Amino acid sequence: MSSSVDSTESTPAAATPTQELRNKLSTFRFNEELTPSLRPSPRNHRRLVNLKCEEEEDSLPALGASDVSTTTPSRKRARSSPVEEIDEKPLESSSPKKRRTGSISPKKRKRTPGIAPTEKYAHLDGLSDHLGDDTDMLDVMFCGINPGQMSATIGHHFAHPTNHFWKCLYGSQLTDRLLNPREDGTLPKSYSLGLTNLVERPSAQAAELANTEFTAGVPALFQKIIQRRPRIVCFVGKGIWDSFIRATAPPVGPAVNSEDADIDTKFTMAVTTSVTSSSSAPDPKPPATATSTVKTRSKATVKRTVSRKAKAEPFVYDLQPYKVIHTAPDATVHETLFSVVVSTSGLVAGYQLPEKIKQFSALKKRVDELRRGTLDTSSMTVLPIPKALLN
Q1: pLDDT at 160
Q2: Beta-bridge partners for 340
Q3: Are strands 381-382 and 140-144 parallel, antiparallel or unpaired?
Q4: What pLDDT does residue 227 have?
Q5: Residue 46 burial (CB < 10 Å; 0-12/13-18/19+)?
Q6: Would you give the distance in Å from CA 333 to the centre of its chain?
Q7: CA nearest to 155, candidates 132, 124, 131, 133
Q8: Bridge-partner residues for 203, per DSSP?
Q9: What is the C-alpha separation between 27 and 240, in angstroms, rounded?
Q10: Is residue 173 part of a domain?
Q11: Whole-angstrom Cα distance, residue 188 to residue 192?
Q12: 61 located within any domain
């Protein structure tokens, strides 16, 4: 009886299906000692830190109530410090959108330069005009704004490498080859082209000049027109044309437009009006009689009227409806016309080189029409010549 019992106890119990499954799955259990260490990527670094801290918590022995108060703060610092360092520094694999909103500062806006003081460019000399030795020899007298910093440094017109002036001359066939800025002195004799500026003071940008400087240069330019008698005066830039025509066009008003008024008085009044309008003084208040009429119209109506007029009359870069008549007995050129092209500076991004060449080509066409006598100028407004310039 006892032998049967011993044989029964020594026989191992049969494994259950659940136990067999556990034994098979135990072979796939992760073993840290047998697995080589891998370098975690920055993207999963936070997840690995959290998992490691959880494993440490599970492996720590149970602590008494007296030990919890002393050990808990150190465990919290050990867990939180790696995570805080990751949160403070942006991850290298984060999207560009997150980097822009985080550490990258916005771009600084370019500021328009203010009016430059006289001493800022006092070390630079002005440019000499190239208008030829004789009268009636120029087909076109080009008038620029003022000598640029590069042009004043080397002593030649339109000398900046990004300026399109010389390329426009060649592209429009006003010259038979692409000239170097150092060849500007050959233009009058070889191509019947002249060069001058409205303002003599050099500057890096035209925005550094005051409005009064543009107006002050108008009488000297008018005198060059009377003395040289070019067929066309071409303004390289709309701003200098606006300054010129404000000062020379006959002012509106019955007293000034009368035939008995002195021409010198007209010219002086035009220059004075232009200088006053360019100053920063506030506009005078409208008279009392016109107040009721102004109040009846809303601001929205006034804005719509102004915008419609501006869109209806865009500026045309070509011949302008003005001329100067030369009455000298020995004059071969009896009329000087005025044309405007866009500034050839490389800073003018609204007009690229092909469009500028088109404007110079239109100028070349006008010169050919004047030479053939096929251009009708009868409807153009005659600009009065001051008596002081006729002597």
Answers
A1: 93
A2: 235
A3: unpaired
A4: 94
A5: middle
A6: 40
A7: 124
A8: 148
A9: 90
A10: yes
A11: 4
A12: no
List the strands of the sheet with 319-325, edge to edge: 193-197, 140-144, 232-236, 335-341, 319-325, 381-382
CATH number, domain of 353, equals: 3.40.470.10
188 belongs to a structural domain: yes
Range of the domain at 231: 118-278+312-390
How far apart (Å, rounded) are the C-alpha atoms in residues 169 and 192? Answer: 12
Mean pLDDT in each 10-residue stretch from start to end of the chain (391 residues)? Answer: 50 74 78 59 56 49 45 47 42 46 49 70 84 95 92 92 96 97 96 95 81 89 96 96 91 46 46 42 44 49 54 86 94 96 90 96 97 95 82 60
Q: Among 156, 157, 160, 164, which one carries the catalytic annotation? A: 157
Please give the tally of structural domains in the chain. 1
Q: So what's the pLDDT on residue 40? A: 55
Which one of the listed residues 130, 146, 160, 164 is annotated catalytic?
146
CA distance 140 to 321: 17
Does residue 157 have an active-site annotation?
yes
Task: For residue 64, tell me if it sits in a domain.
Answer: no
